[in-house]
Amino acid sequence: MNRFVNISNPLTWFMALLLAFFVAGCSGSNETAVLSSAKAITAYSLAGNAGTISEANKTIAVTVPFATNVTALAATFTTSAGASVKIGATAQVSGTTTNDFTTPKAYIVTAADGSTATYTVTVIVAANSAKAITAYSLAVGVTTVTGAIDQAAKTIAVTVPFGTNVTALVATFTSTGTGVPTMVGVNQVSGTTPNDFTAPKAYIVTAADGSTATYTVTVIVAANTAKAITAFSFVGFAGNAGVITGAASPFAIAVTLPNATPVTALTANFTTTGASVKVGTTVQVSGTTANNFTSPVAYIVTAADGTTATYTVTVTLAAAGTAAINLGTAGNFAILTGTGIGNTPTSVITGNIGVSPTTGASIIVSCAELVTGVGIGEMFTDDATPVAACVSANKTAAGIAVADMGTAYTNASAPATPAGVGAFLELGAGTVTAQTLVPGVYTWAGNVLLTGDITLNGSATDVWIFQIGGTLGTANNIILAGNAKAKNVFWRVADVVTLQGTSQFKGIILGKTSIAMITGATIEGRLLAQTRVDLDANTVTQPAP
What is the separation of C-alpha 412 from the centre of its chain, rounded to a whole number of angstroms? Predict the structure, then answer.
């Protein structure tokens, strides 16, 4: 009996357990597990740009920066637990799968229970925010002046040359904005629109996104660079103007003063385009400041912009006692030639006229054109013709005078008369403008053209000798100042002399070839030509004693 009990108890427990498992199995087969229907996209971004999710509309909008390439962007997103995502048939993996967002994309989200929701993703490329002026210049005459652009400060500075009129300058520019920049509501067209830059001007540049930037343009007129001495002379020596030469600093100013002039304390009169003038550290005041000109003196001219130019002033004293040219018996004639005197009536001649060795037939002057008086008003020829009341019977005087004329020409030439030196040599390079010349010997190797009135200022005994290796031409006047005398002015010319119709000439012309006076020209002096003289209704008056 006890043995049965011992066996039956374990069996009882086994059966009980088996029954429990059976019961549990039967009850489980009557219940179905519930699957999730959640199918939302809960976060979305492209290239770090978060999307805006409208759960109600099932839309996602993402704005990316201007110029973003949207053809291959990978979205980063999160969804409801257990949900999957596709675009078309392509499964989407967050941060991995790329898509072309040129057009909206439909994301199909499938829940665990198989239901779906569709989110439409639209990518918007932001409008261009660029609004910079990237290049700027102003047209100043034929010159283009480039502006300096400070992008941080939004300023443009343009420095134009001194003297520029800034009231109507045209700018050329480029910008990254949309359309054209404006200025106080006025559209600005590059290379076309003029503006007054007396005060700074504000350019408003508008970007494609509607934002604006304002650039302030300031035009600066450069300080004056002028630094020239334009005229120079010494107080008390009116007419002894300095001759200014030199194409670039240092410049030279040569001043010739009468012989024996004290030069240790000379005061200069000068004009300058500079802001100031100094000698050493001493400021120079025109007409006031004295300097010692025993040696050359350097005048430093400073422009308004601070640049400088140096003018070296050298004072030369005129040679002592330049002697007049001895004309011999040629000094008895107002006109004397070797081959003839041409004339278009009516001329007025005060003095004698003569020709040798050609005959009197070469003189085309009537007796009526000669002013008669003591020792004047006669014609001299080797053959005493034509036969007229004014023709001298003396047949040798003209020949002797022509010989003396040749000797005078030689004596007026170097080396018998020393050639000019310093300021007296090649004055004006042959083009002599209006100025005053002191007594002395002036020498040119070639042609000379007088382009302005020349004043000869000196005493009654002072002598001027002009040695000209080429032609002499003038339409201007020779003016005698002080007590200067026409009889002491000698023009030794190796080639043709032409006195234009407006010329009022002074002095004795010793011509190697011919002398021509154009209609209306006058001379106080003598026409002594080794070939011929041609008149055309002129006035010739021999010089006063």
Answer: 46
